[in-house]
Amino acid sequence: MIAGNPDTFAVITEKVANWRTDSKVSGMLHVCINGVAYPRKPRATDVESDILCLFDERTSAFSHPKVSRKLFDMKGKKLFKRLRELRFPQYYSGDRYAEEDCRYDAVFIGPASAGYHVFVLSDGQNVRLVIGRRKKRKHGGRLRYIDDVIITAEEYQRTVNRLYLFYRGILETSADK
């Protein structure tokens, strides 16, 4: 299933029944920005956990992008550097005890396991997605800017809603717990 427009922003996902282990639903989940899917190669992931994280209001900016006009108006690489410093201050500020600011973190676990990291923010009318990748796959590797895209908030919300409807059973079942 493809939610969104792959030429700008989309989430490509599929549950694969015969990849099921115990009670987990395995499959694929990729984010597509400006016509490129990340991760670049197909990879299996725990789709249920990925979807639950994307729609967690407390930990993911995916379902409710935070508004910051000041950040939104920054140039691509400069914005990316600022977002990574907010999210991972222990690597970029020199203070290993600095508190992380996760407000703009989209929490795409599948792509993150391949080293990709997606940030989402809004100016109130548009949504901006910024993607980078760790130079090394290990946790402490530096994030490098790849690309970003700006779409209307309406187009973004259609993509989020379509993904929600596709996984409604998983999301509503977890909300009941």
Written overview of the protein:
The chain is an alpha+beta fold. It has one domain (2-176). The chain is built from seven helices and nine strands, in the order E-E-E-E-E-H-E-H-H-H-H-E-E-E-H-H. The protein has helices at residues 47-54, 69-72, 76-87, 89-92, 109-113, 153-166, 168-176; strands at 2-5, 9-15, 26-33, 36-38, 45-46, 66-67, 116-122, 126-134, 143-152. Strand 1 and strand 2 form a beta hairpin. The radius of gyration is 16 Å and the shape is globular.
Short structural summary:
The chain has 177 residues and is of the alpha+beta class. It contains seven helices and nine strands. Strands 1, 2, 3, 4 and 5 form a five-stranded antiparallel sheet that branches. A four-stranded mixed sheet has the order 6-7-8-9.
Measured distance between first and last alpha carbons: 27 Å
- Uncertain ranges: none
The description of the largest β-sheet is:
5 strands, antiparallel
Number of strands: 9
Rg estimate, integer Å = 16 Å
Overall structural class, as computed from helix and strand content, comes to alpha+beta
- How many distinct folded domains? 1
- What portion of the residues fall into strands of 2 or more residues? 25-35%
User: What is the succession of H and E elements?
Assistant: EEEEEHEHHHHEEEHH
Helical region count? Answer: 7
Helix content range: 25-40%
Mean pLDDT rating: 89
Q: Describe the global form.
A: globular
